[in-house]
Design a protein that fits this description.
Elements (H helix, E strand, L loop, with lengths): L13 H24 L7 H12 L6 H34 L11 H14 L4 H22 L1 H4 L5 H26 L2 H12 L9 H16 L1 H10 L10 H23 L5 H13 L3 H25 L8 H24 L1
Length: about 350
């Protein structure tokens, strides 16, 4: 008697997508445990489980329990930031129908940077920096929404004009950032540069970030079929019953809120919102019903691993996590482009 080997579901089927999403979820949990173990003082598996047991019983007073609490809080902040950036990247690429779009292209992150760097320049406390970053992102989002309201309703150049408006707003904010860096004293220049590169030291997960991510994922996933039609037909999607103006406003608002939440937590971390959507699209296809949750899980996984590397590669020195994501992102994106060229030849 021979035993037949179990077969995985066919690629592209709903069961295959569920397998992949489940695998990404398990990988995220494994990455969080790895982040809790590694550091300047590593924890063995026995110490980690003992500390977890202490936390579950309300006794996190041991050294292992204290390290676990600090590392878990930072790892959760990294996961939420990565998930928000990757999901915002998917939404921006669907909104603009541009594969090079990322969460920072419309200037929301630049507005957050202006608020955060101004507070750092004036010597404000850390909670003031976070609040100023959120206020800057909200102000730029409101300005952009007012200027581009007509573009969001559609038209032959709607997405192009929206993109150009965002690029100009971003350029204006970048000029203010350069001015502040030029006049900043040496004692305040280093934290300002670290914030710009992206840094998770001192970050902690927030309930507001969880709420923004969950709400954006829920609202946009309900519109995933409409996003598929919009990606295929653009403004002509309205002839197929898709409310293009309302859908674009939803995508813009959700992407802006996700970007503001991520930037306020960890600064401007690049490449996550660009390479993760492309990698998920390359592996799973362009269906937004799968692409949105897969990108969120993959973005969180990537940033947890990158932050763990940033903490441990040159320990006790900590590197800005934005440097690690850039070093990973550039070759990964070039490798994806090579596969695309091979597929076309």
């Amino acid at each position: 008697m021979t035993l037949s080997r179990p077969r995985l579901p066919a690629a592209g089927s709903p069961a295959h997508a569920l397998w992949l999403l489940g695998g990404l979820l398990l990988a995220s949990l494994a990455a969080l445990l790895l982040a809790c173990r590694l550091g300047s003082v590593p924890l063995s598996s026995a110490e980690l489980w003992e500390a977890l047991g202490g936390w579950l019983h309300g006794q996190p007073d041991s050294l292992a329990g204290t390290l676990l609490g600090l590392r878990l809080e930072r790892a959760l902040a990294a996961w939420l930031t990565g998930a928000a950036l990757a999901l915002a990247g998917v939404l921006m690429q669907a909104l603009l129908r541009n594969p090079l779009a990322d969460p920072y292209i419309l200037g929301v992150s630049s507005g957050a940077a202006v608020g955060a760097l101004l507070t750092l320049l004036l010597g404000g406390a850390l909670w003031m920096v976070d609040l100023a970053a959120l206020a800057g992102a909200a102000l730029v989002s409101a300005v952009l929404l007012g200027l581009a309201r007509q573009d969001l309703r559609g038209g032959p150049l709607g997405a192009t004009l929206l993109l150009l408006t965002g690029v100009m707003v971003s350029a204006g904010c970048n000029a203010l950032i350069s001015l502040m860096l030029a006049i900043a004293p040496d004692s305040r220049l280093r934290p300002m540069v670290f914030w710009l590169i992206g840094d998770l030291s001192g970050s902690s997960w927030r309930g507001a970030g969880v709420a923004v991510l969950a709400l954006a994922l829920l609202l946009c996933a309900r519109q995933a079929r409409a996003c598929n039609v919009l990606a295929l037909y653009g403004d002509a999607a309205s002839t197929l019953g898709v409310p293009v103006a309302r859908l674009r406003t939803l995508l813009f608002t959700a992407a802006a809120a996700l970007t503001a939440s991520a930037v306020a937590t960890a600064g401007s971390i690049g490449f996550v919102g660009l390479i993760v959507p492309h990698a998920c699209r390359f592996a799973l296809g362009p269906d937004h019903r799968v692409l949105m949750p897969a990108a969120a899980l993959s973005g969180g996984l990537l940033l947890v691993l990158a932050d763990t590397a940033a903490r441990t590669l040159l320990a006790p020195m900590q590197l800005p996590v934005g440097v690690i994501t850039a070093l990973i992102g550039v070759p990964a994106f070039l490798l994806q482009l090579r596969h695309v060229r091979r597929g076309q030849s």
